[in-house]
Amino acid sequence: MIKVLDEHLGRKIDYASYKKQVEEINKMIDDKSGPGNDYLGWLNYPSSIKESELDEIQKYAEIVRKNCDILLVCGIGGSYLGARAAIEAINGLHSDKKPEIIFVGQSFSSDYLYEVIEHLKGKKFAINVISKSGTTTETSIAFRILKNLLEEKVGKKEASKAIFATTDKEKGALLKLSKQEGYVRFVLPSDIGGRYSVFSAVGLFPIACAGINIKELIAGAKEAEKSLKSPEISANSAYKYAVIRDALYREKYADELFVTYEPRLVSIGEWFKQLFGESEGKEHKGLFPCSATFSTDLHSLGQFIQDGSRVLFETVLNIKHPNHEISIPKADEDLDELNYLAGKNMSFVSEQAFKGTLEAHAETAKVPNVILEIDKLDEKGLGYLFYFFMKTCAMSAYLLKVNPFNQPGVEIYKKNMFHLLGKKGY
Ligand code: PA5
Q: Whose CA is nearest to atom 8 of ligand 1?
């Protein structure tokens, strides 16, 4: 379902030299014997999630869809980005579907939260608070404020029916609070880390509330799970992509620029950056993941890519067919000089932009380009894509000899902040 094209890299990748290592790592992933192996629950999750679990999620999503104008999704990092990426990718950026989905708890900005609170006036809203640890400060502060607001508005009893908590099954402050308040609870399995959790209730509940077909999303993930099992690089597109990334990294490329031609995929770029950045950036190793939307960013970053420091390679997601076509009309007077495109679809123009940019960057500027080709990005295609990146990331991080599933570095800012805030024990 995803083709990884390597003919625009400007070099031949020596796949044979990776054969043994990839086979060993594949075995290590399957056997769950590598570092961080207790966080490999995502690997077989699409094929093991029960129909009844999906129905349960769907049942509560229907209640929210029927009764609410707005769903507030309160979470950060892996407890936020997958849902946002999926909802925007499928529903677009200006969806008028009900309920409106608003993300909160992903910053300390009072201006942002104020704006959301103003927007809630006169509207019926529910909250999905998502936190595996149950103690993430950004999420907890926003939730405390919004929970109070909801309770003031509809009373404690009704509020407790409109709050849905997604957290660990056995531990954490959010679990304790949810039990006490009687919220509907969804579980994030303990062997799945935040950035690998989009196929659990962390992603699925908000995605279902947005009216997206979660069974199709899981069907796509299941297909990826099945087709990306092979230890053979030539038969496993995720491993082929992981090897290309590793080979370029070892040639001293420092940055991977993830590119799409779709504004609705900006948050897929954010999800991608978290997945790879948090999984690989350890022990002073790893590619720095960044993202861009073309052709928008060809008018900003394009100059740097063409002529700037030779530090990056591009990974371009090329979607062959858009979900909707728009054709360019003919004008009686050709004042804007566009009649040479009259009758052509915008997707045709976009395709030529892609080809022209590829030639400019890969051939003229010698910036290696990996092309990830996908036919169409609907629910199924998206499920496949998420899983593809997760499998790539596990292989790629193990090729770097780092644990793909921890994130020790993010604790340092928290410790400093807690000390400054006067939290007990810091
Ligand atoms: O990928 C991760 O593990 C992190 O990004 C977490 O998802 C993020 O820090 C939020 O953590 P929690 O779900 O515990 O609130």
A: 77
Burial code (b: 16+ CB inside 10 Å, e: under 16) for 150-180 equals bbeeeeeeebbebbbbbbbeeebebbebbee
Q: Ligand 1: distance of its center to the CA of 131 in Å?
A: 7
One pLDDT digit (tens) per residue for the chain, 426 residues: 899 999 999 999 999 999 999 999 999 999 999 999 999 999 999 999 999 999 999 999 999 999 999 999 999 999 999 999 999 999 999 999 999 999 999 999 999 999 999 999 999 999 999 999 999 999 999 999 999 999 999 999 999 999 999 999 999 999 999 999 999 999 999 999 999 999 999 999 999 999 999 999 999 999 999 999 999 999 999 999 999 999 999 999 999 999 999 999 999 999 999 999 999 999 999 999 999 999 999 999 999 999 999 999 999 999 999 999 999 999 999 999 999 999 999 999 999 999 999 999 999 999 999 999 999 999 999 999 999 999 999 999 999 999 999 999 999 999 999 999 999 999
Q: Does the active-site annotation cover 414?
A: yes
Per the confidence metrics, is the pTM higher than 0.90? Answer: yes
Instruction: Please indicate whether residue 200, judged by its CB atom, sits closer than 6 Å to ligand 1.
Output: no
- 2-33+220-399 shares its CATH topology with 45-212: yes
| Probe target for ligand 1 pocket from 42, 73, 79, 282, with the most ligand atoms within 8 Å of CB | 79
Structure letter (DSSP) for residue 326:
-
Hey, where are the domains in the chain? 2-33+220-399, 45-212
What DSSP string describes 48-72? HS-HHHHHHHHHHHHHHHHH-SEEE
Q: Of the residues 12, 94, 121, 299, which is catalytic?
A: 299
- The rounded distance, in Å, linking the Cα atoms of 268 and 141 is 26
Question: Does the annotation count 278 as an active-site position?
Answer: yes
Q: Give 175-189 as a DSSP string.
A: HHHHHHHT-EEEE--
Architecture label for domain 2-33+220-399: 3-Layer(aba) Sandwich (3.40)
